[in-house]
């Protein structure tokens, strides 16, 4: 067996056992080139009618990512005996879910079954912050939507009573540094226009 073949074999085995598909800012370039524009339009339209939308979307993204990663599990509704994240105490005051629904609807008309809700939440938060005069950042896309959502896991969100050590630990458990904690907290302070 030559080295190239061994490399190929290893790649195939790794891809089989682990979902190694990398996130990329160009993920939808061919399958849904207008994805970013469609999400921006949904956010812009909502912001024109409701100034609380940017705050709501940035918080929604944060609360989604903290529990099970950025997988849109925060959007799932409670079903039967399962109480979903959305109905966990820290998430009761989340709002503006309709912005994500509107973006998803527009995307489904343009490119059905392509863009994940997890990517929509990430993009919507980015636009909400940027369009309000805050910073912007690149959003790598290709996130998969989660199917599990448990209200009890919202206990993992930092509590308003946390001191700085507890906040540091909470963010640290998700690979976020003290710098990230300060920057993310600062985003909540951007000027609303
Ligand atoms: C550092 C730890 C954090 C704690 C303990 C915390 C806690 C809270 C609490 C208790 C509220 C009030 C909720 C209510 O009115 O019921 C709130 C609101 C809010 N939080 Fe956080 N938060 C944190 C970090 C963040 C981060 C990282 C973001 C976004 C990047 C964020 C975005 C917001 C926004 C935008 C609101 C206002 C929401 C609205 O008015 O719709 N927070 N937060």
Automatic annotation (TrEMBL):
It catalyses: 2 a phenolic donor + H2O2 = 2 a phenolic radical donor + 2 H2O. Pfam families: peroxidase. This is peroxidase. InterPro entries: Haem_peroxidase, Haem_peroxidase_sf, Peroxidase_pln. Its EC number is 1.11.1.7. GO terms for molecular function: heme binding; lactoperoxidase activity; metal ion binding. Residues 22-193 form the Plant heme peroxidase family profile domain. Substrate binds at residue 158. GO terms for biological process: response to oxidative stress. Its cofactor is heme b; Ca(2+). Transmembrane segments: none annotated. Belongs to the peroxidase family. Residues 1-22 form the signal peptide. The record marks 59 as: Transition state stabilizer. Ca(2+) binds at residues 64, 69, 71, 73, 85. Keywords: Calcium, Disulfide bond, Heme, Iron, Metal-binding, Oxidoreductase, Peroxidase, Signal. The active site is at residue 63. Disulfide bonds join 32-111, 65-70. Removal of H(2)O(2), oxidation of toxic reductants, biosynthesis and degradation of lignin, suberization, auxin catabolism, response to environmental stresses such as wounding, pathogen attack and oxidative stress. These functions might be dependent on each isozyme/isoform in each plant tissue. Binds 2 calcium ions per subunit.
């Amino acid at each position: 067996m030559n080295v190239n073949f061994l490399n190929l074999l290893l790649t195939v085995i790794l891809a089989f056992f682990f979902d190694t598909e990398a996130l990329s800012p160009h993920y939808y370039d061919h399958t849904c080139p207008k994805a970013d524009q469609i999400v921006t339009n949904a956010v812009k339209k909502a912001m024109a009618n409701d100034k609380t939308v940017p705050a709501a979307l940035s918080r929604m993204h944060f609360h989604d990512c903290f529990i099970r990663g950025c997988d849109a599990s925060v959007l799932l509704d409670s079903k039967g005996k399962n109480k979903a994240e959305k109905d966990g105490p820290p998430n009761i005051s989340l709002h503006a879910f309709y912005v994500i629904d509107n973006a998803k609807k527009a995307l489904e008309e343009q490119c059905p079954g392509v863009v994940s809700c997890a990517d929509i939440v990430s993009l919507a938060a980015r636009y909400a912050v940027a369009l309000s005069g805050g910073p912007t950042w690149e959003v790598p896309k290709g996130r998969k939507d989660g199917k599990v959502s448990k209200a009890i896991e919202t206990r993992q969100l930092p509590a308003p009573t946390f001191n700085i050590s507890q906040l540091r630990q909470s963010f640290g458990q998700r690979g976020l540094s003290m710098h990230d904690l300060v920057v993310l907290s600062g985003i909540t302070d951007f000027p609303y226009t």
